[in-house]
Amino acid sequence: MILVGELSDLPPGESVRVQGEVPIAVFNVDGELYAIDDTCTHQDASLSDGWLEGCAVECPLHATCFDLRTGRPSGPPAKKPVRTHAVSVDGGLIHVHESAPVGTTPAIAEEVG
Ligand code: FES
């Protein structure tokens, strides 16, 4: 569990980067908190520096949007999802519960259709 900080320091529309096993970005979307791996799966860009658009963040380098609920990219150039992490608030403090490292969980199934 990673301490992010006080909820009052992360108002709606803002993001913060914290260090887990890898950097993690935490977002406040209208009072709902989301956490994803901070590094874009395309190249070395920090998603916490991106732009929030509803429940997605746009990568600041090449504009792929990542859904904060699923980690899935909207389209190229990024093709792989980022990991998502659970977030909890207790006593006004935000914590991130880091997901298993990449490669230790089953891959997300490709959509068939
Ligand atoms: S670095 Fe994020 S889309 Fe290219």
UniProtKB/TrEMBL annotation:
GO terms for molecular function: 3-phenylpropionate dioxygenase activity. Its EC number is 1.14.12.19. The keyword DNA repair does not apply. Keywords: 2Fe-2S, Dioxygenase, Iron, Iron-sulfur, Metal-binding, Oxidoreductase. Residues 2-96 form the Rieske domain. It is an enzyme of class 1 (oxidoreductase). Pfam families: Rieske (PF00355). This is Bifunctional 3-phenylpropionate/cinnamic acid dioxygenase ferredoxin subunit. It comes from Saccharopolyspora cebuensis.
